[in-house]
Amino acid sequence: MRLCGKMNFMAVDTKKSSLSAVKAQVANKMEVRGASKFYQTKSGNVHALDSVSLDVREGEFLCILGPSGCGKTTLLWSMAGLHDLSSGQITLGAETITRPNPQIAMIFQDANLLPWRNLQKNIELPFEIKRTKPDHARMKKLIDRVGLSGFESKFPRELSGGMQQRASIVRSLSVDPSVLLMDEPFGALDAFTRDEMNLLIQEIWMETGKTICFVTHSITEAIFLADRVAVMSARPGRIAEIYNVDIPRPRSVDIQTRPDFIERVLHVKSRIEHGGGKQAGLEIV
Amino acid sequence: MEKIPEFNKKPAATGGAGLSAMSFGTGGARTTLEVIVIALVAVFIVCGTELYLHLFKVPHYVFPKPSLIVSALFTEWPNIWPHFLITIYELLVGFAIGGSIGFVLAAVITQFPFVEKVVTPYILLLVTTPMLALVPLLILRFGFGSEPRIIAVALASGPMVMINSATGFRRVDLAKIALARSFGASTFQIFTKIRIPMAMPMIIVGLMVGSIFGLLTTVGAEMVGGAEGLGNRLTYYSALIRMPQFFAVILILAIIGISIYVFFFWFGKKWASWET
Q1: Model's pTM, two decimal places?
Q2: Interatomic CA distance for residues A20 and A57, integer angstroms
């Protein structure tokens, strides 16, 4: 299914995606084992994560779904090595993640571009930090692919929210990571742009064969994008359930209105409400 | 155990002395019409003053005619020039010392909230106390040369640079720092690629306010003691009731002040125009 995508995203990546297709589907890219996290506040300790265990399979699209404040972002930032756990372990292959890893790229909420740099300079930031020569050919291809060519000298404030998030995707892909961690990347976009971005990220994933771990609070978005949906419950954050989504790809936006899709959404919603008691904040788009 | 990070905290500038409301965005741009009107107002004021002083026969030791001031500026220029150089030298050296200490102090201190809380009242004391008051004391210790004036300029401009830069450095955007860290940035890289650019608008405001405070202090200190500098020329010419020359010096000081403003405004447009 994966390889029926459009043109290959990148010549270099062709090999990678066919390799991952050959490999057994069960291979784990990342493993989270017994991850717990406490935060200290004025009113006492907050138990943000409670022994979360989760496998991220090689080349899969995994969505982590849950209400606001359930610890999704904490889990994702820990997987990115941006903060430590109180207990437990996160591994990427044989490596334990305790700090940022070049194989893992993060895509943040609201694009997170640097407002004092133009689009081109924003995309070059990772290369400046790593003190390597920017791969201009690759950058140009990526910019063309997401439809941003001609906007290289524009500053973030001159770009729409969708364009900013496209630029941030290019920035993350330019360093060719194998894992993309996405933290509610399209949460601030309007519904139309959001659909557009969901399609784009699906295409990019199919073309590159990256492993994507995508945090969202929208059930529709999660089911539309994911191979598997991990549902989290709040306070303390736990993995409540994991659903397989077997809808064939590429998926078009239209499927979101199909009865069987809506049935899945309602099913997940009812399970969340049933399993975790009354939970506010779960939105239905 | 650590505190809950605020993942999406938006940076907000708080406090800061001086022209913190100033922005380097497009707001400062002027249309041709506005420029013409501004020039016309200047012409009207100069010609009006000339005419008024002429009609009412105001003696030139009370208020010299603009034409007299301009001609005095040219005839007296060779005598004023060495003093001009001394004033500029004192201002530049004092501001360079004060400004760099202020900047470094701001960058370091904001990394340690406790130290910052302890130090800030003393910096405020330095900002609010007129450093001119210290000049007689400094002259007693350092003599009538440039040193006491340079020290006074550094003391006047440094705290201004510091307090504004600190406001800039306090604008922490955890998401942007996390972004840099996710690509493997070191603490130093986070400082040069995220913190400094983020603080830049406020740093430039601090430099501008600091250098204008420095100019005030230079001239004031020269008026208090010593025999050189533009400030000294002011007391000298007014003692001799050579008012056209006196006003010519004031004109020069006004031009220096405006040049400082224009320079930093241009600097801000170039390096901080992303913030409107």
Answers
A1: 0.78
A2: 10
